[in-house]
Amino acid sequence: MGKTSMNNTEDRELGEAASQLSTAPVEGAEDRTAGGPTLGVVGWTRWFWRQLTSMRVALILLFLLSLGAIPGSLIPQNSVDEMKVQAFRDRHETLAPLYDKLQFFDVYSSVWFSAIYILLFVSLIGCIVPRSWQFVGQLRSRPPGAPRRLDRLPASTTWRTEAGPEEVREAALALLRGRRFRAHVTGDAVAAEKGYLREAGNLVFHVSLIVMLVAFAWGQMFKSEGGKLVVEGSGFSNTLTQYDDFKSGSLFESDELTPFTFTLDSFTGTYAKTGPQRGTPRTYEAALTWSTPGGEDRKQVVEVNRPLEVDGTKVYLNGHGYAPVVTVRDGKGDVVFKDAVPLLPIDNNVTSTGAIKVMDGYRDKNGKKDQLGFQAFFVPTFAGAGEGDMFSQFPGLEFPVLALTGYHGSLGVDAGLPQNVYQLDTRKMKQFKGADGEVLKQRLLPGETMQLPDGAGSITFEKDVKEWATFQITRQPATGWALTGAVAAIGGLAASLFVRRRRVWVRAVRGGDGVTVVEMAGLGRSESAKLPEELGDLAVRLNAQAPTAPEPEEPDVPAEGAQQ
Predict the structure, then answer these.
(1) Which of 457, 161, 183, 147 is nearest to 329 (CA)?
(2) According to the model, what pLDDT value does residue 33 have?
């Protein structure tokens, strides 16, 4: 019975020695009433809260959040490009209704994604707050005293020395503090601990996740982003009416737009002309002149990865194309339209399509008001005549050709409904036909003119082909916080993975024969081969200051019969 009691005492001492090596909650710490009454509402609420705020559930929710983001990266999103979403619907008539029900076209604002997001946020806060207080308490406290049986710890050693116990303890205290251990003398032993950075890194990692979640939510609520196509020589003012498309967060207000203007002075694009990378961009930059209200004009070259930044708003260069300059005249020869018409690329060699619309000012040969429309097909480097549609063989402007098909009638803009400026609605229009009765189509070189039949006028492809660039104007608040959180999370994770939390005890007591007995032992949060190595190194250094005492000589025993 006495031996059992002693073992229980030693086990309790070992448990106390290993206590508070981590702030992680002990599994199974929740109240259990096995065989007793049910937990009730309060009991179940506590149980649910403990489960939700456990690190295990936090990691599961983090995994679910990353898993839930996969559809958002693979499926077109309404918040990014509604036209791509509509094109996806047209191609997948069976999947689209299912995706609508699952909210796959609006992943980041869906109910299920928001639920995971909020639960993760609550779980992290509920887990980190109590662990932080526990960690602060550990920092303010001292390492626990040495157990009675140091030889039962995972790594231990002992030797005898002629140095006094106090001398050994002082040497051990100085040695451990020199190794950046938190050490103090308690009773007949020195207790030391090291590796608090592991738990600090763990807490920093999870706090950083909260910072990133808050920054992401803040950015989504207050963000604004829009696109604008600008032709060389034209400009943009950062107001809602200037955008071609615009998206914003739920709490964004239009007066939060940063006031500034810019003009596209020129676009420069050069491409590889030979080799396997023929057509690959070598230079891709837009020269801008920009200013803020009351400020001076400043110039900046914007590249794909070098945006213009004005008070937190960034202007990114997204795309590029060509805008042939055309002149349209009526039957009397009066100019009714002259402008650069942006056309949209359909391949990597900038083969482009679009529409030229003359909505006002045109009259036919009888003086009657009418509207003109031309379907345009443009190639910067003509590949030569052949069967089918023409195409470009190089993205650079080396041999431009403009193909036109003319229509007259109603463009459909008088109804007041929004219309795609790059597409021609021909439902209420008639095609021009030549003298042979065939549809009027013509390919034009710069400077050439296509005459419309019956004195309807003409359209000229001028010798000037301008270039255009598309810009993404974005304001994303809290990006600095998100970056700080990401960097801190990486640092905290590295600390929690590579720093080891461990304790060392050195006991020095005088033995019955007057020689000091030195015991050293170490205990880590987890089994590690480095703990015995570190303890061995400490023991060697301490042994140099308290060397091992020589073994006592055994007395000579006379041989049997020697006395006789």
Answers:
(1) 457
(2) 44
